[in-house]
Amino acid sequence: MRVALLFAATLVVSTFSAPSPAGQAWLSAVDPVVAADRSATSHVAMTSTAADDFMELFKPEAAWSKSASSIKVFKVSTQFLHRATDQQLATVIQDLRRRHIALGLEAEILATSVQCGNGVPGYTTTAVIQKLANRVSGLGGKIEYVAFDEPMTWGHFSHGGHACGYTTEALVQNIAPNIRILKAAFPGVKFGDIEPVTDQTADRLDEIMDFAKVFHEQLGEKLTFLQADIIWQNKWQPQLVEWRKRLHATGMSYGVIIDGDPGDKTDIDWTRHAIERYRIVASDPNMKPDDFVFQSWQSRPTRILPENEPGTLTSVIHQTVAAH
């Protein structure tokens, strides 16, 4: 899971008109498997994360019916599909089908090697991808969207340590076996990418677009979307304007991850920041996304439910896309 260091200026909500929703809304939250991994490595109690009520989302009476009706894709981690219990995974698959919500995977799509990748975000093994594909299909599920966990950032732009520093061509060759596994298991799956937008990434879009081109040339599959993981500080707005224009010109959809800050002191602070950011990007026609991805991989908000209580993750959806 990505660890973002986010900084936000105080924003005045009243200065923005209420935006209309755009495209698809996605939801993703800290799951019990990721929470347990963090607890084991950082000694942070699992009760400090929203994973406590993650499985509550998938009960018929769960208190997010209005928000759920606005969500088109529910994105889960590689870790959850690989290591959740059969009961947990079956529950997620069955309830998403009942709610007519597509299952998405945030994929650690890069494959580690003996030379590099171990301990670097975004990497896993082909065996892990094969196992999770087998588990989902074996339980009657279908992965409809695969969002890559920043492969250009961790596999191409990063250097030093255990980073691989692949060329774009070598990076696509690295992930090709995992793509073929997922395509064989789920023939209609749509692939896309997530990459960060920070004050250090203004010159990266050309290479990311080249990655999409090489991906298509080598694998015969198109990247259908690109989603921005924004470090909410200066200079991100012009990049979103450029993303929107360039992606639409190539037929790709453009998404933005909506979240708060890891330094937020309360759940109310986190959700307030997220709502403000939704309103900013949705209100500007030059950077309005096709897709909104409501997501937290942070310790806040500490609860996902209920949607009608301020400070929960689903309350952000309830006050934004679901309000329309």
Can you describe this structure?
By secondary structure, this protein is α/β, with parallel strands linked by helices. Helix content is 39%, strand content 17%. It has one domain (13-323): Alpha-Beta Barrel (TIM Barrel), CATH 3.20.20. It has helices spanning 32-42, 65-68, 78-83, 86-99, 126-138, 151-157, 168-185, 205-219, 236-249, 267-283, 313-318, and strands at residues 24-28, 71-77, 102-107, 110-111, 123-124, 143-149, 190-197, 223-230, 253-258, 291-295. The strands form 2 sheets. Strands 1-2-3-6-7-8-9-10 form an 8-stranded parallel barrel, surrounded by 6 helices. A two-stranded parallel sheet has the order 4-5. The longest helix has 18 residues, at 168-185.
Keywords:
8-stranded parallel barrel; two-stranded parallel ribbon; alpha/beta; TIM Barrel; 11 helices
Short description:
The protein is an alpha/beta fold. Helices cover 39% and strands 17% of the residues.
Our measurement of the CA-to-CA distance between the termini, rounded to an integer number of angstroms, reads: 31 Å
Strand order of the largest sheet: 1-2-3-6-7-8-9-10
Percentage beta strand: 15-25%
Query: What is the helix/strand order?
Result: EHHEHHEEEHEHHEHEHEHEH
Share of helix, binned: 25-40%
Uncertain segments are 1-22
Specify the number of helices. Answer: 11
Largest sheet: 8 strands, parallel, barrel
Mean pLDDT: 91
From the 3D coordinates, which CATH architecture would you assign?
A: Alpha-Beta Barrel
SS-based structural class?
A: alpha/beta
Radius of gyration: 19 Å
Q: At the fourth CATH level, what is the homologous superfamily?
A: Phosphoenolpyruvate-binding domains
Shape: globular
Classify the fold: give the CATH topology: TIM Barrel
What is the tally of beta strands? 10
Name of the CATH first level: Alpha Beta
* Structural domains: how many: 1
